[in-house]
Amino acid sequence: MIVDAAVGRKRKRSAGALALAVAFAFAAVQLCPSDGAGCLGGPRRRQLEEEAPQTHHVHRNFTVCGRATDTVEPSDYIAISRELQQQYASCPTYTPDTPIVYLSGHQTFGRTANHLIALQMAFQYARDTNAELAIARDSWATDVLLKFFMAGEREGEWAANVARELCIKVVNSRDELEGREVAETSNLDMFLYRSRAPREEAVAGQLHALRTLFRFHNTGGAVDHRGAISRDMCSGIDSLFGVQDRNAAVYSVIHLRYLEGKPGISILSEVSKLTGCDARAALDMRPEYVKSILEPLGMLKHPIVVITDGQSRFFLHRLRMDKDIGPMLRVLPESASWAGGDISLAAMSTVFVGNPASTFSGFIARARVALGLGHSYLFRAKDGNGGWKTTCGELECLFRRGRPPTPDELRQKRGIVHDVREHAARMDAKRTKNLKWLEGRD
User: Fold this and answer.
1) N or C: which terminal CB in the chain sees fewer CB atoms within 10 Å?
2) Burial bucket for residue 416 (CB in 10 Å: 0-12, 13-18, 19+)
3) What pTM did the predictor assign?
4) pLDDT tens digits, residue range 196-243?
């Protein structure tokens, strides 16, 4: 099988030759063809060294929880966007006249992935409006960022990391921005933001931001903005495979997310209309659907790990009872199961099977593209011959609008503010009143 062939080749590679190869390569990403054929069997270069990442590089591979990201032959749009990604890899020059987009407050909507997406869209919004991004030290943005990424070994080190790597100004209060033109925005504003930048440019920005975050993933023992010790993003991988074996582990991750039942059905139905994917398969995760993905890849003989929202016990039980899936099924122990551990476990898996209605699945799948990993399966439908096919690729669906659309967003067109000086007034006027559906969405 192609998985076994890839694993065999990996074990035979020379670490020295690989280090030399990646020194001259870009950290490009792999987009698999729609049928997924041949991706795992293709050539890979590995960067095995564990040295500290250099400032603003896009040329060097790195590891996440001991597992190597990939530098592979890129797809056309990734190859074209290399120059754009290089531009995102350095901070713009800011002056006292540069307007500021300011993230503050603690009000949030939805769960973990919604907040991460809001932060990522804030990066893009600042670039789109030629503004400097600033975050309050005590705010939702700092909370979500340091929960997973960028915590430092010493107290206060994180702020320098954030400024250097993400071009974000950290302030104690708005008073520090006195004399600057400031547009204060919220978690929800950024979650709903849509960039009008050319698609290739917007994708380049997202890819660079995601790679930067994962280069600085928290591994436990670091200090956050409140002086607390950060949790280990590698807890999930380490609990299943151990520190010694995690780099060579071959496994699949299934994201079992039911999205509170009827709301999930409604959201996936709307996503289906836009992308052509099946309107129920990714919610139900029937054994036949899972096996249609894993069996052709030879992955039914390797561990199948389930990350779940706890609402899908019936569906988990059904997978356990399947004669092919059940013996290989793994569920994280409670001590290792948390959002950060789940993200790294799924982002670095050999194969990822997700739910296109879930922002959590979407964030993981986009991270996998940024890290050069193929074989993410979200948008699937029957092919008319009893089998399944991928209905659209990463550029069309994962990066379509920054995240899967919501029903309300599909019913109305939202104008995009390009002048940061109009931001506050325009965002207030456009804010949706009924946002209860966001609370359970990720």
Assistant:
1) N
2) middle
3) 0.78
4) 888 888 888 888 899 999 999 999 888 788 878 889 999 999 999 999
